[in-house]
């Protein structure tokens, strides 16, 4: 053990210890076998109760014995009166306290205590709360005890504000008490169950460990009600490097989850295809998706955009040949999401080859909330506080990351330059997580580019030379016809890339792309520019064979161009390509 001087023992002492262990083991095995025999024979007597107690006192994590003990106790309930059962269970609680002294984090002991407390004729919940207080004073992160306390509080009807005061006391004695911060995040929505409007979106969890998860994200206080309490600010100003308070602060600044809805319906006359985008990944084959064309329900087969996805935010179906191909006809489509009792209409007008109906990213407030003047003032105040702390602690990663999220909540485009500078500092001060910060920065840059694209009302997505390391929000690019990803640090085009069902031109020169898995069954794709990447084999190009309209392909500067007979091999693999650059 730590802090104890190791005392050498003689061979004789070792032999004596071995014999003592063997003696104890024989007694233990004999008692265990006796328990198993009694259980097999259906014997539930006091002797069995004593045997299980003897074994569990030394090994409280023997789940089978706890199960047998519960069988015995349930049998005794049928043959004893209420007062006798009360005494038996009170003795059981005392026995359990001795087990918890052996192992305060014993799964079996805590589970059995919960079972006993729930069956006790006249439970003493004050005693149980007192036990929790004692255990948490010894180890304030004993999650078994926290779980048991929540059960006791629920069963005994302890007022929420009283429990909130309990967390105040624990946090006051130890700002680093992560369990108490998390418990607060479950209590506050119960104390204030309704919020007039959701706070702003500071949603990205740190990479090192997950943020506290309240029981429901839709129940959030008005942000001013939360931030009247300066407890959390006192905590991170006292110890800026402790992550517990920062995680809780991030939760306070969080927002409700997005409404479940059909965000876009797209119809193509040329392909006679319908694509539907949802606000979250779904399994369209099981959520009740119904397509109605000109008032008539259609029997169609919905499929995800890539075979790897059973759940996807984008699903497609093909209409029977000739259904909408005549350009002189007008058609009205409705997609019903019966599971959520919602639908979206789309009209394909005469002379049009395609049509869509959608809420834009700006309409959906995907990347920020339209804040009231009151809330903007509160968030500005919080940003000012964090900036003051950052002046004192310029290299504190938690402070920097929170500043980034506050800036994005307030004005993601207006604070773009400052955000990029802070990300660069984060990569330097927390180099072990530089890849995470690179991915998070890429995500924010993509969000900003989507906003800029939609403000400009164009279908061209250009994000070249931004040091992108990953691609995200690809479901928001369903209608994009031209994408420019050149001069970044991308290593693959992931399966989600197949959501770009309208894509005609793909520019991805000067990356490190090795994998084209996501360039899969893109019906309109005509031009792919992949100069100076790391595509090394013909197999890497196989996904392109699923794109029927591909005409131009630039592979200059890729290792695959050194393959023998590359031109003939590509001609066989991609017969539609007429302009091949090697």
Tell me what the structure shows:
The protein is elongated and about 85 Å long. It is 44% helix and 12% strand. Strand 5 (303-304) and strand 6 (312-318) form a beta hairpin. Mean pLDDT is 86; it is low at 195-225. It has 582 residues and is an alpha/beta fold. It has a six-stranded parallel beta sheet. The longest helix is centred in the N-terminal third of the chain and has 30 residues, at 11-40.
List keywords for this structure.
elongated, phosphoprotein, 582 residues, 18 helices, 12% strand, Leu-rich_rpt
Strand fraction equals: 5-15%
**First-residue to last-residue Cα separation:** 67 Å
Helical stretch tally: 18
The number of strands is 15
> Largest beta sheet: what is the strand line-up?
10-11-12-13-14-15
Overall geometry comes to: elongated
Main β sheet profile: 6 strands, parallel
- Regions with little confidence, pLDDT below 50 for 5+ residues: 195-225
Judged by helices, strands and strand pairing, the structural class is alpha/beta
- Mean pLDDT metric: 86
Determine Rg (CA atoms, Å): 32 Å
Overall helicity: 40-55%
Compact summary:
The chain has about 575 residues and is of the alpha/beta class. It is built from 18 helices and 15 strands. Strands 10-11-12-13-14-15 form a six-stranded parallel β-sheet. Strands 5-6-2-1-9 form a five-stranded antiparallel β-sheet, with no helix packed on it.
